[in-house]
Amino acid sequence: MQTLAQHLQQQAIPESLTQLLLTLADTSKSISQAVRHGALAGILGATEQENVQGETQKKLDVITNDMLKNALQASGHVRGLASEEEDYVVPVSDAGEYLVCFDPLDGSSNIDINSLVGTIFSVLPAQAGELTEQSFLQSGRQQVAAGYVLYGPSTILALTVGKGVSFFTLNPDSGAFLLTQGDVQITKDTAEFAINMSNQRFWEAPMQTYIADLLLGKIGPREKSFNMRWIAAMVGDVHRVLCRGGIFTYPTDNKNPEKPYKLRLMYEANPMAFLVEQAGGKATTGYQTILDIQPEAIHQRVAVILGSANEVDTCLEYHAEDYSGDEPTL
Q: Which residues form the Fructose-1-6-bisphosphatase class 1 C-terminal domain (predicted)?
């Protein structure tokens, strides 16, 4: 089997990007080890701290954030980094050619029940001049690489450098990531959807109607039965979509009018949208293609609808019928 390093050497990308991606992969091996040790290492449970979004940090959130930050600072290829767990952007090296955004441990609410978690990352080109938050505010179209590492029964790296999506599985014996699936493609049609149904009463009318029609199955206007799946970790739900199709959505809601959107654009939505588009799927807010959004802040949140192209288009038809104009601000 081809190793990750061998695969990257064939992609005609800069050597500096290859080395950066290998650094991220190597760090994910250490994170995988930490996750597997769990309670044995005394690293489960919450801290007394909150991140910039006001969420209570898990111990592993902090540990994995430090692991990635330390590795990227030592890599020599990173100009600056931004993390869900950091209040501000972190300068690294004036000589660095890339900016890295990451969610060190997506799905951390699953940690204490031994369920799926993962690391999500996005790589952007560094720009000349002083490093500020503005340096990171590039649309998702500017990404030169993106991926995630899923820590489950096996540790899997999903990666794109803009030339399709490949899966690599960590061999626990050799410690190498081996190519186990190339040219990943999302099926155009699906009979599975993933959404947090507990928020149903807070959704906008288009999403209310769309999901209601899915639930009606063969007796409804879709004339087709759908199954619902929900892992409560974006990294796990998106991996399922990449493996067997589906639609995943965390839509706009008015549960908390100050936070109508759940997922972070720079750390979650952009890298996942890049992967999904490279695998033949679509990713949108319901009103705008995610990769075309011009970011306004490093911790900006957006609504997300992504997955099988035909099903995303159908969901968009509901939004077009119920609303026209700019995306609403709740």
A: 186-319
